[in-house]
C-alpha cells in the first residue's frame, strides 16, 4: 500500500503573533489561524467597549463556535445577557438569532466556523470602514468621527434596551452612516461655501447611495445597517430627508444615529464653522426635543452625555 505525499505540510506551527492573514482596526484584531475544507479557526481581540456579532444567514447551516481565552465578554441575545469568562464556550448550528459580544475589558477568543467567512466578511467590512473614515476626513471631520458616533450610539441603544438584532444593526449603521458620500462629487463635498439648490439635492442623495452600497454586499449585518444609513437624516417632525418620514416611521436606531451625529457635528470644529460648546449643544437638543429629535432618544442621550 502506498500513500500520496501531501502537497503541503500537514503540521503548521505559528508562533505568537503569526497567522495566515490578519485584519486590524483601532479596536480589534482578527487573525485567520488555519483553514481547511471550508472550516476556519479565527483569533479575535477586542478592546474594552468594542463589539462583535454573529447573525443568521439564509441557506447557512454551518457550525459556529466561540471559546473565550482572556478578558470578559457580555453576550447579548434576544432573551438575556450572559457574562462570558475565560474557558467559557458557546456554539450554534446554525446561528438562528442575532448575537452581540461586548468586551467589558480587553478580551480575546477563538471563533470557529465550518464555512469560510474570514475574507468575505472581515475584509469587506474593513474596506467599507476605511472608506467611511476617509470620506469623513475629506468632509472636514477627524478620523475619530465615525468611532465617536458608534460609541455614543451604542451606549444610547444599550441604555434604551434594544435587542441583540437592533444592537448589531446599530453597531455597523452608526459607523458607516455617511458611506454614501463616496458617491458625491468632490467639488460638491469639498465646496467651502454654501451649496446651490441643485448641489444640495445631490448631497442629500448620500443617504440613498449609502443604503445601495450596503445592500449590494448581500452581507446580513450590512443589509440591516442599510436602513440606518438611509434614514439617519430623517427628522421626528417629518422635515428630514430623503423620504420625509416622521415619528415612528423612522426606526429607533436611525433616530439614535441622527441625534448623535447632529451632536457631534455641533461640537466639532469644521473648516467653515467653529464648534459649539457642550452646553450650547445640549441646549439645542433640549430645544429640538420632540421636534427634530425623538424625545426618548434625547432624554437617554442627555442622561449619558451629562456623565461624560
Automatic annotation (TrEMBL):
It holds the Pfam family HD_5. Residues 120-308 form the HD-GYP domain. PROSITE patterns: HD_GYP. InterPro entries: Cyclic_di-GMP/3'3'-cGAMP_PDE, HD/PDEase_dom, HD_GYP_dom, HDIG_dom, RmlC-like_jellyroll, RmlC_Cupin_sf. Coiled coil: none annotated. This is HDIG domain-containing protein. It comes from Salipaludibacillus aurantiacus.
